[in-house]
Design a protein that fits this description.
single chain; 466 residues; mainly alpha; two-stranded antiparallel ribbon; 18 helices; 58% helix; 3% strand; globular
Length: 466
Amino acid sequence: MRPRLSPILIAIAVLAVLAAYVFFASNGTMAFRRVAWDQKFERPAEGYYASLAEGFRRGQLSMAHEADPRLKAAFDPYRADVREQYHAPYLWDASFYRGRYYLYFTALPVVLFYLPFRVIAGAYPLDALAGVFFSAWAFIMATLTLRRAFLGRNLHLPLPLWILVIGLGNVIAFTLSFVRTYEVAILAATAMSATWAYALLRFIETQSAKHAMWMGLWLALAVVARPNLIVLTLIVPFTIGLRNRRAWVAFIIPAILVAVLAGTYNYRRFGNVRQLGWTYQLTGQPMRNYRACSLCNVAEGLRAVNHAANYIGLPPKIRTRFPFVEATLPQVDASISLPGNEPVVGILAVNPLVIAGNVLALLLLPAWRTLDTTARAGLRLLAGAWLVLLSLSACWYVVARYSLDFMLLMCIASAIAIECGLAQLAAHGISIRALRIGIVALAVGSIVIATLLGFEGPFGAFHGMR
């Protein structure tokens, strides 16, 4: 008996995406070397997780790197001019508190990848390999979410094509060629939020306490990894019924446990359960003087509108030489935003399918009471993605890697909204043939655009590192 073609094509699509991740993260070599915790890197903030993991191995919460005595002696080490006055070397963008280095980024990558890798391999991984690990995790969970959502459905686009869109129709490939501590932390959060998306779908299907517990756990871990993802909790009251007490208890218990562990970790480092280390950053200006995210006046409101426009629609630059597209610097007001010095590409430019997904989602809303569990899950995920995008726009910095906070969720939700929306239109006797052709063209276009962006990478990183 001949094997069914569909599972083979699905496996090929999954392997193609994973191979692409390895390709871009390794700058085309398909290989990653092991490194020591004190490996010297040219890129600022690269290798910090290995140092933090080594610190954990030594029984401390700080990084293994020792601060220079001149930095310890500086009367205000958080000011760049003071560090220069003392001629004090330092770790750029690390947190410095009471003579020790810390990270203001999540420690989840250390626990989930760096320490296990150290035990198995005897050395530490490159940040690029950690980026592949968390990218693959996020992609696999997104694929499982779509496979579960589309179970038993007659799809208008083949599942292998949806898998390629989910895996490549975003800025993951673009990000992987330039991975440092920043990108690892964000990709870890992307993996957590993608796992939460699967748990949310399963809870909507079953209404069981077990799936509520998993939903609470992965959402809490996503917030620990990226605190701005806390806006996703606004989706929960519209997902768990107020009378479903067992589900609420199951959801809250793991969330509280994660919060207690995170608060204890912060308290042991900085003496404050809410202090993540941002205040003690060693960067260009004292961070104690800045609010990284705020929406308290008209100027900040206009900034949020501008930043949202960048995240949504900023197009890449078209060039005549390969790879033909290049992400551009965001257009921001330097008087209230951090001047854009890292490229951005809007989600509508990298994945125009999102336009169709949002339009069809609006068509589904009036029929909310008659929608099935898949459609309701997709609309909730879409709402969550928009909440993340809009809240992120209230921050003072616009950069492509931040868009990973919402981009994968919006791609998953758009795929669900498109399939459910097309089914609704067909059920009302509306011909969808032209729509299907257009959506297939957009799907192929998004895969091509995002892949070409991967061949460029931030600052031309892929081309520059070959």
